[in-house]
Amino acid sequence: MLPETMPPEPSTDPEAIARELFSAYETGQMVEAPPSIRPGFDLNAAYAVEAKLQQFREAAGHKSIGCKVGYANKAMWRVLKLETLVWGHMYDDTVHYANGNSAALTIIRPRSLKIEPEIVFGIKHPIMNQVIDAALALASVEWLALGFEIIDCPFPAWKFQPSDFVASFGLHAALVIGEKIQIQPDLIPKLVDELPRFKVRMLKNGEFVEEGSGRNSLKSPALCLAELGAAINRRFPSHPLGAGEIVSSGTLTAGHPTGKGDLWTAVVEGVSLPSLTLRLT
Question: Strand 113-123 to strand 246-251: parallel, antiparallel, or no bridges (unpaired)?
Fold first, then answer.
């Protein structure tokens, strides 16, 4: 009788894991098991994988143009033993601008899509201070807009840990950005007051789905931006959030399953942003 051969242990090398996840991203395949089942795969390992993924994407001609946020909810930090939020890069082929207040978007090789309304910021000055302050964060912002992020999970049943989120492009599939509002210094105090309190109503094919609030993004999208800037400075002090980058600051509602043919509208009250409509084609 021939001896049984054991299957090889999954690699724990960041580059090997990055190649596995990059292949799944390019082909639209599911990943059988998230990297977090491997011994020692923590957030440090995840950001090493994310850096490799950025290298692969940029080698393929796609420039990193900003970051998207995950776990912008301190209640989740306690459950998952996080010290801060997490993030992943977005790229010039995944970020799109609406024509006015509406857009159409095709996702190539979708797996399990969800849609999230978010406040998006355009950065004009590097965010380098460690003070978690909404006004200081907004002073580094050129514009803000309402956006829709489309996320896509490569792991079965949407089950993953924060390290898996970081190592799989932050689940980012696309970001659609609505009309930009320029931020002048005299507008900042008003935004500091409005951003925690404004409401957003999500409609699918004209039917009400959910109402969210700015408070759902770390009590304010501006505070979320400040926290992200500080977290990046702590982990990557030589690469702060820089001028020209775009930040998608965390969902304002639950993520809702979506697919081809869906028409989504986000209607905002309490802050001067127009509604945004997106059709998935």
Answer: antiparallel
Q: Which residues of the chain have pLDDT under 50?
A: 6
Give a yes or no: residue 27 inside a domain.
no
CB 265 within 8 A of CB 203: yes
pLDDT given at position 6: 47
Q: Based on the structure, what is the number of domains in the chain?
A: 1
pLDDT of 5 = 52
Which one, of 274, 267, 168, 275, lies nearest residue 208 by Cα?
267
Whole-number pLDDT of residue 132: 74
Q: Does residue 10 fall inside a structural domain?
A: no
Pairwise CA distance, residues 233 & 215, whole Å? 24
Query: For residue 114, what are the domain limits?
Result: 64-280
Can you say whether the dihedral through the CA atoms of 36, 40, 44, 49 is positive or negative?
negative
How far is 1 from 149, CA to CA, in rounded Å? 55
Q: Judge residue 64's burial from the number of C-beta atoms within 10 Å of its C-beta, 0-12 exposed, 13-18 middle, 19 or more buried.
A: middle
Per-residue pLDDT of 196-236, as tens digits, reads 999 999 999 999 999 999 999 999 999 999 999 999 999 99
Residue 132, domain CATH:
3.90.850.10
CA atoms of 200 and 13, how far apart (whole Å): 42
Of the chain, the end-to-end C-alpha distance in Å amounts to 56
The verdict on residue 42 lying in a domain is no
Q: Is residue 258 part of a domain?
A: yes
pTM here is 0.94
- Residue 33's pLDDT is 94
